[in-house]
Design brief:
The protein has helices spanning 12-23, 45-55, 70-76, 81-90, 126-135, 155-162, 201-208, 216-220, 271-286, 303-315, and strands at 6-9, 28-30, 37-41, 64-66, 95-100, 117-121, 139-140, 168-171, 182-185, 192-195, 212-213, 235-236, 246-250, 261-264, 292-295. By secondary structure, the chain is an alpha/beta fold. Bound molecules: adenosine monophosphate (AMP) and magnesium ion.
Length: 319
Amino acid sequence: MSTAARVETITESSLEEAAALIRAGQLVAFPTETVYGLGADATNDQAVARIFEAKARPQFNPLIVHVRDLKQANCHTVFDETATRLSAKFWPGALTFVLPRRTGSNVSKLVSAGLDTVAVRSPAHPAACRLLELAKCPVAAPSANRSGYLSPTTADHVVEDLGEAITLVLDGGPCSIGVESTIIDLSTKPPSLLRLGGIPSEEIEAELGPLQLAGSETILAPGMLANHYAPATPIRLNAQHCQADEALLAFGPNPVVGAKVTENLSPKGNLVEAAGNLFTMLHTLDVEGCTTIATMSVPEYGLGLAINDRLRRAASGRR
Ligand code: AMP
Ligand code: MG
């Protein structure tokens, strides 16, 4: 039985508790200056999968990773000269950078939905800053609302929408900005604006010159991002048998036999575990030199919907 979330005002002890929950792989809603975020340890696949479960998102779209500072951002992304210059002006604050993922970063591949970029932001809200300091890990946090609902700007909004799905909501009062962060993609040349938000685009253009706003599709349906990861190896869905030159992405206690190499999303048949493993295992199988990656069917409910969506798009060559 799920119970309503506990709401705590911001104190050093509630922040410590929230940080401990995050380190233990749980979800915590916390205030930022933009909107309330639904936070999880960005390096923990299962914790990140719980975010998608709580938001009931039918697709995996990439999440923003919240960091303490430029130094932590640079551990997980290639924080280039442009990012450094912009961060000097706008961080901490409502500006998110999409940057190439740093080789060796332990950020979950599910955070970036398998892309080779990571979105990073250093929030200015004192409670968010302290939480990031205490948690010690980077914190993946989309807006703390169910998919398709409005972004929450008070703790009450979070409780109304997600109260059953999380244990703790830190109440920092209304968000001062109240709209999401501006997102700028610095992984492309030239950079482009992915989302309008808390920092006016003119202020960024004053630094970088005129910017292209990415297609409206990206804004309306982030899960449909044109550059979503798809493996180079062709995908074959709903495998009931396997050839010796195929790789198998299995699910559940009775994997199909006969493949050259098998990765099992969840031998127990747990969809949260499966979602957490999806991108890492696809990457692993993609470099095995097999003719095909055969995938077993995953149930069409809960996170199974998002897993199947991703596999279908990978299979049809749609990224
Ligand atoms: P939210 O966390 O609810 O503010 O939404 C996060 C937004 O960040 C998503 O809509 C994505 O479009 C965007 N985003 C996060 N990571 C990436 C990335 N690696 N590449 C492109 N867009 C990203
Ligand atoms: Mg959102």
